[in-house]
């Protein structure tokens, strides 16, 4: 009977992020000189999916009530690696892709192993491992360069049937192959349970460690998919420290915008994807309104604050002040 | 029961935490098809015993036998596998997950490697129905449910695991009388199905109704085992506390009602659909009880006084003057001087990882500091006074408050507020899950504070307490004051009848209501003495 209301309550964050994105994107395309065309959508999609992948990665870890400050660096490392390996014949390229994804998975697994079995704080652990991953990226590409299998790159950044951005399809595919099974598996539920109340989860005999480990490892994998796409867009590898850090921090913003709770146990990668797309659209908005580039970071920050505040409106309706702290 | 082969035996189990001996060569044997009650004060070792059984802590020595062969459990999951399922006093539900998610959490039904949500829903509905809680929606998030409903989910969750041995640790302490009756029915059915049940409770009447066999623990040892009904309540309590049991409630002063000027008054308080036109007054030196079934607005009423609720209509008067209490900070301020002892000491009363000292001074920091700097000497003096006054049993002031037993934690919560010398004290079911000895001390303290001029508003789910402690009792039903009972009118019968909103004269015996309490309130007085065992190390 009232099932849909429970569903609605659960999806509130995701729907809000979706709404914010739609509003922003509508404003953007209606003010864009070219309007809502396949080209504009393709460009927006290609820019958006990079952050979307990294935000998905962040979501997995944030759900366990952790945080991963190394996602941006895994993203860079796999970009640099891809610029060496994802090239040549079909077989060689395929091997390269597998190696790049495997590296991401390994990076995530290392984070997970240290946090879970070493019992270190996620924040410190991932600052340290992030620095290590960046160091390796720098050794791989002291200077920007390298190349990528351009056929594959063009196929994945172009359009399907002339209209649908291929990168968006790839994002959807990853969502279906990685996120959906994870969120519906026992491990996924263990990750949520550990994030919400680790003691209760332990007392209930939930496989907390495996759930958290899977979350960290898959986060590495998703960041690597992001890194792969970065290579497809740029055709090069570059160990750009500032860019790695920016992706890490933006991924956290995107996750919050997408209704994922930083306290853990709540939220979905789908929300985080819309959060990421909305976040990217903020930059584009400033572009179509011809803001001086000097002002862009400032406005980006202000719009982000406003967007995040939307999620807090429910607090005004709270009539029992104790509910503020739940 | 009648010499059946024990399903499970514990032999010579010992466990130490640091220097504290929690269990010392404890023995226990459990037979199928019976309900075995474990009695003892808080800190007697009951909790540790069941944690050992449930695989939460490993014993230092001793052995456990299941079906005649030795077993040991590395984790709660291992114990579950062996068929030992425990409903813990600290709820083991994951708040952000739904009821159905929680019920199947340890072994969700799977289809193609993913969780089968349809099957999960079905299992959850079955389990809820079995626990007599079909009113709970399986998709509701646990965090949105009130405490009593969560407890029912907890029980449903345990049943869904098909246990052979089911341990209930204070499982009814948060339940309404109607739920307790349902759960008792469920437990009796499980017993007839051949389960072994271990039942831990501080409520003697529950044990009298349910148990076949009783074992009393004291100081980490099992001091006595006997068939239920072969010992009087008095004897049992003496076994538990290891000394003579004196009458538990302090005498009420004889006074004409309403002579004292009201300190705290409410006029036509309403709030959403939970409070409905409530008017009441509490005078200096008066202990006024709030009765009724759990969840009839008692908690909200206390929160309304304490400035937690927004959008309140009606008036609150302090010393006859209307005041607006906008926050707990205002409520505790010198002009109002109110204190609230919250329902859930673990989340609303204490910062568990912080020390006893820090927890004690939180509410009074403004009074203990000058220019933002805490006056350490003044703080120490006041803390020493409180520790002595309440006989708080702790290894030191600098241990985390979470390491104390439940009763002592509650004393810290109360002491923390007494440090401000409040004039108005609101208590929200303060004795839940607390042992007899500590309860008794709290009753004495409450009366003492009232005698010193405090106005006390006291909500309790235990009718005996209301009868024993209060000068007047207001019974709430559906957010409204249903009946006011004064002095001798406060009887179990009247309380239950008005709580169920039925006419007292036609009150059915047994049925939905809590069974009439035995003992406790009615035990003959033997002269109250300050208990040496508890006061000694303060």
TrEMBL record, chain A:
Q: Which GO terms describe its cellular component?
A: plasma membrane
Molecular function terms, GO-annotated: transmembrane transporter activity
Localization annotation: Cell membrane
The highest taxon in the source lineage is Bacteria
Q: Give the transmembrane ranges.
A: 12-29, 49-67, 74-91, 97-116, 123-140, 160-182, 213-234, 246-263, 270-289, 295-316
Q: Which UniProt keywords apply?
A: Cell membrane, Membrane, Transmembrane, Transmembrane helix
InterPro entries documented for this protein: ABC_transp_permease
PANTHER family the record matches: ABC TRANSPORTER PERMEASE PROTEIN YPHD-RELATED-RELATED
Q: What is this protein called?
A: Sugar ABC transporter permease
State the organism named in the record.
Answer: Mesorhizobium wenxiniae
């Amino acid at each position: 009977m009232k099932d849909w209301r429970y569903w609605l309550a659960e999806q509130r964050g995701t729907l809000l992020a979706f709404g914010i994105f739609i509003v922003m994107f509508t404003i953007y395309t209606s003010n864009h000189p070219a309007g809502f065309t396949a080209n504009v959508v393709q460009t927006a999609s290609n820019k958006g999916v990079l952050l979307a992948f990294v935000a998905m990665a962040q979501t997995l870890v944030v759900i366990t009530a952790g945080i991963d400050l190394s996602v941006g660096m895994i993203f860079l490392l796999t970009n640099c690696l891809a610029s060496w390996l994802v090239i040549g014949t079909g077989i060689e390229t395929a091997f390269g892709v597998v190696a790049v994804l495997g590296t991401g998975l390994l990076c995530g697994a290392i984070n997970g192993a240290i946090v879970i079995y070493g019992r270190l704080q996620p924040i410190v652990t991932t600052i340290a491992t992030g620095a290590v991953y960046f160091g390796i990226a720098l050794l791989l590409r002291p200077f920007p360069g390298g190349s990528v299998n351009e056929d594959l790159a063009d196929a994945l950044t172009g359009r399907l049937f002339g209209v649908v951005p291929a990168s968006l399809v790839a994002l959807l595919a990853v969502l279906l192959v990685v996120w959906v099974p994870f969120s519906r598996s026992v491990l996924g539920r263990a990750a949520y349970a550990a994030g919400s109340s680790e003691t209760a989860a332990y007392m209930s005999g939930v496989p907390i460690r495996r759930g958290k480990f899977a979350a960290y490892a898959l986060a590495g994998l998703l960041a690597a998919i992001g890194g792969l796409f970065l290579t497809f867009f740029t055709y090069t590898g570059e160990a750009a420290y500032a860019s790695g850090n920016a992706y890490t921090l933006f991924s956290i913003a995107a996750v919050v915008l997408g209704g994922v709770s930083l306290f853990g146990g709540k939220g979905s990668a789908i929300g985080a994807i819309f959060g990421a797309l909305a976040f990217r659209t903020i930059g584009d908005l400033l572009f179509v309104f011809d803001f001086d580039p000097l002002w862009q970071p400032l406005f980006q920050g202000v719009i982000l604050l406003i967007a995040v505040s939307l999620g807090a409106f429910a607090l005004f309706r709270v009539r029992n002040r104790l509910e503020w702290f739940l | 029961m009648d010499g059946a082969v024990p399903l499970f035996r514990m032999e010579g189990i010992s466990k130490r935490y640091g220097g504290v001996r929690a269990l010392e060569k404890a023995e226990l044997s459990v037979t199928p098809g019976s309900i075995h009650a474990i009695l003892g004060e808080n800190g007697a070792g009951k909790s540790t015993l069941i944690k050992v059984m449930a695989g939460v802590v490993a014993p230092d020595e001793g052995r456990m036998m299941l079906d005649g062969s030795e077993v040991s459990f590395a984790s709660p999951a291992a114990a579950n596998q062996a068929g030992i399922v425990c409903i813990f006093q600290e709820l083991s539900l994951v708040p952000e997950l739904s009821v159905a998610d929680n019920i199947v959490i340890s072994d969700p039904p799977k289809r193609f490697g993913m969780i089968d949500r349809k099957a999960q829903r079905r299992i959850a509905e079955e389990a809820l129905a079995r626990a007599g809680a079909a009113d709970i929606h399986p998709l509701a998030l646990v965090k949105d449910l009130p405490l009593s409903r969560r407890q029912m989910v907890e029980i449903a969750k345990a049943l869904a695991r098909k246990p052979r041995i089911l341990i209930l640790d204070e499982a009814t302490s948060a339940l309404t009388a109607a739920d307790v009756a349902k759960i008792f029915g469920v437990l009796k059915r499980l017993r007839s199905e051949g389960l072994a049940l271990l039942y831990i409770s501080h409520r003697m009447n529950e044990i009298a109704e349910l148990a076949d066999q009783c074992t009393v623990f004291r100081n980490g040892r099992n001091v006595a085992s006997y068939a239920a009904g072969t010992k009087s309540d008095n004897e049992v309590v003496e076994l538990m506390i290891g000394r003579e049991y004196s009458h538990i409630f302090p005498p009420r002063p004889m006074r004409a009602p309403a002579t004292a000027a009201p300190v705290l008054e409410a006029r036509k308080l309403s709030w959403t659909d939970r409070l409905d036109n409530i008017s009441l007054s509490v005078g200096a030196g008066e202990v006024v009880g709030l009765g009724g079934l759990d969840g009839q607005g008692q908690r909200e009423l206390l929160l309304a006084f304490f400035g937690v609720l927004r959008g309140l209509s009606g008036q609150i008067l302090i010393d006859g003057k209307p005041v607006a209490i906008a926050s707990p900070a205002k409520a505790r301020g010198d002009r109002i001087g109110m204190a609230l002892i919250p329902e859930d000491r673990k989340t609303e009363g204490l910062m568990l990882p912080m020390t006893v000292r820090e927890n004690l001074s939180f509410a009074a920091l403004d009074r203990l500091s000058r220019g933002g700097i805490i006056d350490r000497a003044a703080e120490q003096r006041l803390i020493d006074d409180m520790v002595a006054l309440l006989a708080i049993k702790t290894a030191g002031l600098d241990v985390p408050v979470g390491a104390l037993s439940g009763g002592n934690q509650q004393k810290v919560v109360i002491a923390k507020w007494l440090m401000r010398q409040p004039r108005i004290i609101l208590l929200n079911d303060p004795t839940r899950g607390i042992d007899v000895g500590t309860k008794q001390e709290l009753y004495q303290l409450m009366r003492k504070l009232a005698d010193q001029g405090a106005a006390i508003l006291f909500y309790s789910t235990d009718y005996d307490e209301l009868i024993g402690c209060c000068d007047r009792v207001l019974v709430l039903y559906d957010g409204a004051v249903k009946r006011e009972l004064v002095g001798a009118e406060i009887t179990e019968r009247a309380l239950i009848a008005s709580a169920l909103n039925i006419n007292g004269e036609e009150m059915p015996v047994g049925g939905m209501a809590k069974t009439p309490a035995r003992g406790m309130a009615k035990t003959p007085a033997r002269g109250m003495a300050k208990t040496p065992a508890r006061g000694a190390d303060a």
